[in-house]
């Protein structure tokens, strides 16, 4: 259904939500009740469709053009990670500040993602509004067995949202050299995640709604995923904007991978350490097998007309735009991430890859062709872009042509912005299986990686220096950084594995040239003060503000 459903809400604590209604042709002269919606297959389908719709249309009024729901979050994630930044400023006349994810790109030059600033709402507020959409469905369908597939879809979505939130707000140890009290303040909230809001939460409960512990959060997430797994056993979505059983397995793989990073905890009901890594590998393989998906070919990856704008056989889950969900020319993924977008920021900012990551890509790895080479060779780049040679003249080294506008359209945003964006690709599952396995079986992990990389760089072998231990994990992580570049996922792996940002001496723009000592403190996000004031328990249990924590150029 093309209708976009808007929900009335107020914020308090996690978020205080009022009951929403969907206007229909029944009942006469009024609105549908929850019972009537549950009895109407069309209305129920509409409620389910509202979840992926709100993900790509939600607007918080932040006063910035990256304020377009889940895709805006993905872009912010990669700026926080330091793996994506504008490279246009590296050519004379270029302007790095045309990249609109500046608060997340320059956390040591700007303090806009501190709890007291509005940009801290991008993640927190969006996620709880997405959760509201899922909760509305769950509150309507209840335990009705005839609607179990609807329940399973909503629970899979809710698990995605909470899993993301938990990984963003889980305050893991981080060095902050210029913030004297950062570590002691972080330690005071160690192991806390986010408040829980369900379809049965009352307003009184939400006014004093504490952050779940890590164990509580994952018990809740797995409860949703277990129910989704049972409900979706025989379900095949009509489009990949709704989750399948394979996606549920993939979400479990992501969750277990995160828990594998904690090897010194003895949770009663949640596995950690090696046990969790084994489960991550198991569920990644289940996701691969259940999906029926195939690894993207070079032709699919590099196609200037359909490359990373159209669902293909490798995509397990996606956000799918229609003409009805294109908000305008600038509130759009393509407008920011595609060089084709002459009407937007993509061509101006030129999102690109750190030169030190690019230089590590094997010469025969076709993914290298997604980026402008250091010598800016037009003839080498021409087959993979919709730009003319004249337009290419102002494109800087290391700019990416991974994401294309619809049909390569460069001017008409109403056509160009109608694209799909991956939420989960089968390649992530192959690399998750390899990395999880590397933590307890290096030999098998090497074979898994080499088998996968045969699809990227023929003849690839794991370097001798990376045959086991942390070096093997790092090699797998590197390949994952290249594979998922720009897709908003790698932040969670870098945070989990305590990886340093190393951008002080590469092509990063001024203000983002820094090296961290392990994970960056801004990977532990802060809950907006405007939220905490409505849920006072959060005022004393928030993560410490992480900005201005390092010296930069």
From TrEMBL:
- Which Pfam family is an annotated match for this chain, by its short name? SusD_RagB
Q: Any idea where the RagB/SusD domain is? A: 388-506
Any idea where this protein resides?
Cell outer membrane
| Keyword Signal carried by entry | yes
For this UniProt record, the keywords arranged alphabetically read as follows: Cell outer membrane, Membrane, Signal
Coiled-coil positions are none
Q: Which InterPro entries does the entry mention?
A: SusD-like_N (IPR033985), SusD_RagB_dom (IPR012944), TPR-like_helical_dom_sf (IPR011990)
Please state which protein family the record places this protein in: Belongs to the SusD family.
Name of the protein in question? RagB/SusD family nutrient uptake outer membrane protein
| Species annotation | Candidatus Cryptobacteroides excrementavium
Q: What is the lineage of its organism?
A: Bacteria, Pseudomonadati, Bacteroidota, Bacteroidia, Bacteroidales
């Amino acid at each position: 259904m093309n209708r976009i459903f808007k929900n009335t809400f107020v914020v308090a604590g996690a978020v205080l939500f009022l009951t929403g209604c969907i206007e229909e042709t029944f009942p006469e002269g009024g609105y549908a009740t929850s019972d009537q919606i549950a009895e109407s297959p069309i209305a129920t389908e509409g409620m389910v469709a509202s979840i992926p719709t709100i993900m790509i249309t939600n607007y918080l009024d932040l006063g910035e053009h990256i304020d377009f729901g889940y895709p805006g979050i993905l872009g912010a994630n990669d700026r926080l990670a330091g793996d994506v930044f504008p490279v246009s400023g590296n050519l004379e006349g270029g302007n790095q500040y045309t990249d609109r994810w500046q608060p997340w790109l320059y956390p040591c030059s700007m303090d806009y993602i501190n709890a007291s600033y509005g940009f801290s709402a991008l993640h927190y507020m969006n996620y709880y509004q997405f959760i509201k959409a899922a909760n509305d469905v769950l509150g309507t369908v209840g335990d009705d067995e005839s609607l179990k597939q609807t329940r399973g879809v909503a629970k899979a979505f809710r698990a995605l949202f909470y899993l993301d939130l938990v990984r963003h707000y889980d305050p893991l140890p981080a060095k902050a050299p210029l913030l004297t009290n950062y570590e002691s303040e972080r330690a005071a909230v160690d192991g806390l995640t986010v408040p829980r809001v369900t379809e049965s939460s009352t307003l009184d409960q939400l006014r004093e709604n504490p952050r779940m512990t890590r164990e509580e959060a994952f018990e809740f997430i797995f409860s949703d995923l277990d129910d989704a797994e049972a409900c979706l056993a025989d379900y095949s979505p009509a489009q990949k904007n709704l989750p399948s059983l394979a996606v549920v397995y993939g979400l479990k793989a992501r969750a277990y991978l995160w828990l594998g990073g904690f090897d010194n905890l003895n949770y009663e009901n949640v596995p950690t350490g090696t046990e969790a890594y084994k489960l991550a590998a198991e569920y990644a393989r289940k996701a691969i097998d259940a999906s029926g998906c195939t690894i993207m070919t070079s032709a699919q990856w590099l196609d200037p007309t359909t490359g990373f704008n159209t669902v293909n056989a490798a995509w397990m889950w996606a956000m799918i735009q229609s003409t009805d969900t294109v908000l305008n020319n600038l509130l759009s993924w393509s407008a920011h991430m595609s060089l084709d977008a002459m009407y937007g920021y993509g061509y101006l900012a030129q999102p690109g890859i750190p030169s030190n990551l690019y230089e590590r890509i094997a010469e025969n790895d076709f993914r290298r062709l997604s980026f402008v080479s250091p010598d800016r060779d037009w003839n080498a780049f021409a087959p993979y872009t919709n730009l003319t040679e004249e337009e290419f003249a102002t494109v800087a080294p290391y700019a990416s042509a991974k994401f294309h506008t619809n049909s390569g359209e460069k001017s008409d945003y109403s056509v160009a912005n109608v694209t799909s964006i991956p939420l989960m690709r089968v390649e992530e599952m192959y690399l998750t299986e390899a990395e999880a396995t590397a933590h307890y079986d290096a030999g098998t992990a090497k074979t898994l990686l080499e088998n996968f990389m045969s699809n990227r760089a023929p003849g690839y072998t794991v370097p001798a220096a990376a045959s086991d231990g942390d070096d093997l994990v790092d090699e797998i992580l590197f390949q994952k950084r290249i594979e998922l570049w720009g897709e908003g996922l790698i932040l969670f792996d870098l945070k989990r594995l305590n990886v340093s940002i190393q951008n002080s001496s590469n092509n990063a723009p001024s203000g983002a040239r820094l090296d961290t000592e392990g994970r960056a403190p801004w990977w532990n996000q802060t809950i907006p003060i405007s939220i905490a004031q409505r849920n006072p328990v959060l005022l004393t249990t928030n993560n410490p503000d992480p900005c201005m924590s390092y010296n930069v150029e």
